[in-house]
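Structure ticket #2291
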Amino acid sequence: MLDEDDRISGYSYFTIWPHRSAAEIAGAHRADTQSRGVGKAGAARSFGWMFEHLGVRLIGLTAAKDNVRSAKVIEAAGFEPIGERTSLRPDGSLRESLYWEMTRDQWRALHA
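Resolution: structure written out below.
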């Protein structure tokens, strides 16, 4: 993502499991571009693109328990909170996260 001065302001990347027709998205915004509401709009465009152009059936998302900004973006998009997950980091430590899901049919119903 580029800001008004054509500087990189954030990034996102997708992980896709074709055999499950499922995906996840992760990313971040530069600190000085946060809390401007652009994350919600950008995330919504990405979710729509994943469902409609990649054809995934399910998107699952996690955010660290203390990551309030990501949780707000995820919840604003209409994802359903499922519970918590524990992930193993590459360094062997554990990360406790909140977990949400949304199906393509749920997305389409919200954006009809």
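Closing remark: The helical segments are 38-54, 68-76, 104-110.
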